[in-house]
Amino acid sequence: MDRRSFLLGTGGLALSQLLVGCGGKNQAKLNVQLLKGSIPGQVVNQFQQSLPHKVQLKFAPVEQIRELFKQLQVWQEKPKADNKQAWTRFIPFGQSHTAAVADLVTLGDYWLKAAIEQKLIQPLEEAEIKQWSTVDQRWQKLVTRNDQGNLDTQGKIWAAPYRWGSTVIVYNRDKFQKLGWKPQDWSDLWRDGLRDRISLLDLPREVIGLTLKKLGKSYNTENLDTVPELERELQKLNQQVKFYSSNTYLEPLIIGDTWLAVGWSSDVVSILGRYPQLTAVIPKSGTAIWADLWVRPTGIAKDALSSQWIDFCWQPNIAKQISLLTKSNSPIATNIVAADIQQPLRNLLESNREVFAKSEFLLPLVPSAAKQYESLFAKIKAAKSGKAEGRRQEAEGKPLP
Q1: Complete DSSP assignment for 187-252
Q2: Bridge partners of 261?
Q3: Do 375 and 257 belong to one domain?
Q4: Do both 67 and 129 map to the same domain?
Q5: 269 and 326 Cβ atoms separated by less than 8 Å
Q6: b/e map of 276-298 (b: 16 or more CB within 10 Å)?
């Protein structure tokens, strides 16, 4: 699953690369590749200032989680000279295949299982991370997994979460004033007045997941056949949907082509301040949660500096800065209050323990279950495409097949 910055300027690293400290032959170095916008530049500077000795910090922002995952794969490959041209086409950024392997990399929780299975990353040691005990058990459980990448309380610690967000509803307040109600939960997507007025993420886990949640089930339901009403509900929802997209679902909302969209909070927070007609809410029955994690690539020696960086991100005052400046949530308890958060963002960033308790991470599914999700989603979307083609032919005066 991919997440991206819909619009830039989120208070994170704005430069193509941030290099702090002068390079010396024997100077300690920390090389980090991170999701663009997920760490404020001033936090990196504060980390530099907190260290007793000068070190060289290299923080290279990358546009998408998908690119970071591909880079982890590239670092573990040993391509032959005769197929170099073929494999380099899939490298997401320039000459990065010749660069040194980073000490730490941002990865999304959804990608963690694949990274473990493919042996792209190595586990962290609890002893090297002083602040581990301050992390809520729910986050500890998320990153404690066995060698197959599945949750296992007896497993190893594979990552360190440093910020999180959720799947949210964002809607045009002006349009809904005419309807006389405001969206508050997933069930509202099925209400009258929204036919062809919704844009949804083009992902089976998200669309089927929110429908399962509406029916009182889990996002991580393994066997969809146990929910006989699911397909009927998806068909009804499909009638409300104008289109599915994981990249361009906000643009039509901004111009008024759709009235409501479902998307990731990391995208939505970037536009709320610019378009005052838009309001975002986290569904009351719970939603899907995503997390940005620090992982250590396979083959990189464990060192104190990378552990210090993880601990630094978990200090309450630093965690608060990361949360406020990148407009996200923190896995660490902070003293953030409503007054700290811009008014349009309060619905998304204010802590609501009740809703958080009802929300879920999108956990790995067994292959047969994943295929079931994909097949059902493809079936529902095919029905949408067929109806759209029928309407087009009818408008052009062509006989329907």
Answers
A1: GGGGSTT-TT-EEE-S-HHHHHHHHHHHTT--TT-S-GGG-TTHHHHHHHHHHHEEEE-SSSSSHH
A2: 170, 199
A3: yes
A4: yes
A5: no
A6: eebbbbbbebbbbbbbbbbbbbe
Q: How far apart are CA 266 and CA 106, in angstroms?
A: 15
Q: Do 151 and 49 fall within a single domain?
A: yes
Alpha-carbon span 20 to 30, nearest angstrom = 10
User: Measuring CA to CA, which residue among 381, 389, 390, 362 is closest to residue 234?
Assistant: 381
Same domain, 173 and 220: yes
Task: Tell me the pTM.
Answer: 0.84
Task: Report how far apart, in Å, the C-alpha atoms of 150 and of each of 122, 124, 144, 399 are.
Answer: 15, 16, 8, 52
379 HSE (CA, 13 A, CB side): 12
Residues 227 and 217 sit within 8 Å (Cβ to Cβ): yes
Phi and psi at residue 68, to the nearest 5° = -65, -40
Model confidence over 87-139: pLDDT tens digits?
444 444 444 445 689 999 999 999 999 999 999 999 999 888 888 988 999 99
Alpha-carbon radius of gyration of the chain: 22
Q: Give residue 267's domain range.
A: 167-288+361-394
**284 and 190 in one domain?**
yes
- Cα angle: 85, vertex 91, 95; to 5 degrees: 80
Continuous H helices in 35-179: 41-50, 65-76, 84-88, 112-117, 137-143, 173-179
Report d(CA 201, CA 207) in Å as an integer: 7
What are the residues whose beta carbons fall under 8 Å from the beta carbon of 251, sequence distance 6 or more? Answer: none
How do strand 29-35 and strand 104-108 relate by DSSP bridges? parallel
Phi, psi dihedral angles at 363 (to 5 degrees): -85, 160
Give which of 120, 101, 126 is closest to 32, Cα–Cα: 101
Question: Do both 34 and 124 map to the same domain?
Answer: yes
Alpha-carbon distance 139 to 318, whole Å?
18
264 shares its domain with 295: no
Distance CA 155, CA 147 (A): 8
Residue labelled with tokens 């397909």 = 231
What DSSP letter does each residue of 298-325 carry, written as one string? TTPPP-HHHHHHHHHHTSHHHHHHHHHH
Q: State pLDDT tens for residues 330-350.
A: 999 888 888 888 888 888 888
